[in-house]
Each structure stands twice: as C-alpha cells, then as structure tokens.
Amino acid sequence: MPSTHEVHRDKAHALQEELFPEICSTIEGLSETEWQRSTNCPGWVVRDIVSHLARSAGTFTAMVDTGLRGEKTFALTQEERDRRERELASLSASQLLETLRADHDMLKSRLASLSADSLLTLCPHSRGLQPAWWFADQRLSELTFHGWDLYHSLDREQEVAPSVGQHLLPVLLERNVPTWHKTDESGSPRFVVLASDVDNGAWEIAPTSPGANVTRGISKGELTIQGPAAPLIRWLYGRAPLTELERAGTVSISGNRDLVGQWKLLFPSP
C-alpha cells in the first residue's frame, strides 16, 4: 500500500498535469508583443515568468539530488540562479518552451521514482531544509501562482482551481508560512484561517522568533479569515488583498480588523 507521502506526491503530480499543458499552450501562442508585456511581478515581463518556471524546475531537481546525496547545503547561489534565468530569457521562444517542458518532466520523473523513505529525505532550499515530497507541492505552487501571473498579465485572469487550493493550502500554511516570519516578534497576535472546503480546515498561526507555530484544528485567535481554499492561497501568496476578496464576497474577516495589515508585516510572502 502506498504511504501517505507517496499518495500526496502523486496527487501533486496529477494536479500539475492539469495545469501544465494549458500554461504551455498559452506560451506557445504568445505574440512577440505579449512576450514583452509587463506583469504583476515587479520588474518582470512575460518572458521572465516563463524563464523562471523553466529555471526553477531544474533547480528543484538539483536540490533534491543534493539531499539524496546526504548533503545539506546547496552550492548554486541566488546570483547564479538569476544568471541562469537571464540565459534562458535570451533563448528563442521555441527553445525556451522546449527547456521548460524538459526540465518540468525531469523533476516530475525524479520525484516519481522516489521510495516512501526517500521522500522523507531532507533537501536544501533557500527557505531551509525540506523533505523531498515537499518539492512536488512547491512545483505545483510555482505553476499555480506563476500561471496565474501569466494569465493575469495577458488579461486572461482565472481563479485557481478548487482542487489545487484544497491540496496546497495545508502545506502552504504548515510548511511555507513559518519560513516567511523573520522578526523577533513572538506569540501574538494569533491569526486563524478557516477553509470552508477543506476537511479539518482550521489553523491557528502565531509568530515565533523566528518562524511560526501553526496548529491545525484550532479556531481561536484575534483575527479570523474564512473562505474557500483557492482565494485563500492567492491571498497568502500576495495575489489578492484580503479586503478585495472580502468586497467580492469571497472571504469573510472577523475579529480585530486592525490586524489585517499586520499579517503582511509579520508574514511577507515571497
């Protein structure tokens, strides 16, 4: 019987393959003007989003391989990663798309080959050591949010699929959000996130020094944010202000509303 983490990885891969063909099809149909269109990612044009998606797949594979060798540090610096993205951005459209597809498939194949025990191997990432299974979710996050950036920047914005939001929200809250908090503030305020379409979808998030204590199943805090998982993950990753989602009737906010702005100060998303 597959382990919990094998099932989780396979679900992440299945969701990736729901997103990836549409992203590639959109990229394939871009005009030269669209390749150079400005995006909601500061300083990036559409071509930069595509080169980032291609580069990150290769980097994730290298990070997993580093962890599987028993190493805990990653040799490639951020400057070297940025240089690789510039190299990719200089390719022709067809070459860039070919690289994106090849590196995406390489990462998926590498993770799909791992045993239940190997999926627990800690691998280096810029946000700290993460188990190998997490990289399948992180790749899904990249496709989700940068896919959204791509469509939004091309005036083709669409909501994140509910199934993607439901899969990603728990891991984003429990593994990613704690890596965002770097200040000395600790213990308070406590935030609660309630996902209306996730089983046991209640989390309390309290900052620690650094990091955060994220406890599932607790729904007491000074500020509560409630709604479906898909818009909640867009809020977490800076693609939708809470107040905008509230005005749209997508989420509800209760408790100390002065803390709405405090969240972004304590947990600035990447």
Structure description:
With 270 residues, the protein is an alpha+beta fold. It has 2 domains: 4-158, Up-down Bundle (Four Helix Bundle (Hemerythrin (Met), subunit A)); 163-266, SCP2 sterol-binding domain (Nonspecific Lipid-transfer Protein, Chain A, 2-Layer Sandwich). It is built from 10 helices and 7 strands. It has a 5-stranded mixed beta sheet. A two-stranded antiparallel ribbon has the order 1-2. The radius of gyration is 19 Å and the shape is globular. The two termini are 36 Å apart. The model has no long low-confidence stretch (mean pLDDT 95).
Counting H and I runs of at least 4 residues, what is the number of helices?
Answer: 10
Uncertain segments of ≥5 residues (pLDDT<50)?
none
Q: What is the C-alpha radius of gyration, as a whole number of Å?
A: 19 Å
* CATH C-level class of the largest domain: Mainly Alpha
Helix-residue proportion: 40-55%
The succession of helices and strands, N to C, reads HHHHHEEHHEEEEHHEH
The CATH topology of the largest domain comes to: Four Helix Bundle (Hemerythrin (Met), subunit A)
Strand content: 5-15%
Distance between the termini: 36 Å
Strand order of the largest sheet: 5-4-3-6-7
CATH architecture level-2 label of the largest domain: Up-down Bundle
